[in-house]
Structure prediction request, 247 residues.
Amino acid sequence: MILAGTTEASQLAKQVSAAKIKAVLSYAGRVERPKPQPLPRRIGGFGGVEGLKTYLRENSITHVVDTTHPFAVQMSQHAVDACVDLDLPLMAFSRPEWKPIAGDNWTEVEDIPAAVSALKGAKKRIMLALGRMHLEAFAKQPHHRYLLRLVDPPGKEPSLPNHDIVVSRGPFTKEGDLALMRDYNIELVVCKNAGGVASRAKLDAARTLSLPVIMIARPRLDRPRLETGSLSKVMQWLGHSGTDLGV
Prediction:
């Protein structure tokens, strides 16, 4: 089973399908229009660790690959706990974290509440590149004008009193993000340290415009797990040889 929701999950699905490995992609269901995939899909939660364990047993899953977003910490923790309890092999694909380079002006913070606190002060035009899950937290700093870039239109209007919404799906480009930031006169960017290539354009654009960035650190899991930053190593770990692994 591949725990999905990222660009790399889609790339891995193609490789797994080409290797004729039996697999299923599992989505949390937060995106309304998931991309077409070459593998069967299931959408929705499992009902905690016990529900995940039940699914793994009932579907004879032999390997689990976690390619969720680096900030999907609850799902990743549940996968670790379930696989430990069932003695199932688990491999996590983990994108290398972004690191600041010359010209970057980052303030690195521990979590979402710390990012909200860092916005105390004069009114600014801020790009919140966070997805939709954590937007409500920023209502504690209502004096700013926020630009929200979302994959899907929100089900209800965010409680942020001053905001603009752009619905767009990555991967994004530096040129596109430069134009976006200029169009909305952005003065500050807030984002998670997701790593990878598909969403780093905003950092390149911010550097070009000499904009400060509040960078939210990744959450950490309670238990260690086997990780790699290479999809080819995930495939090697699966040991594909044309046999039916029942992943």
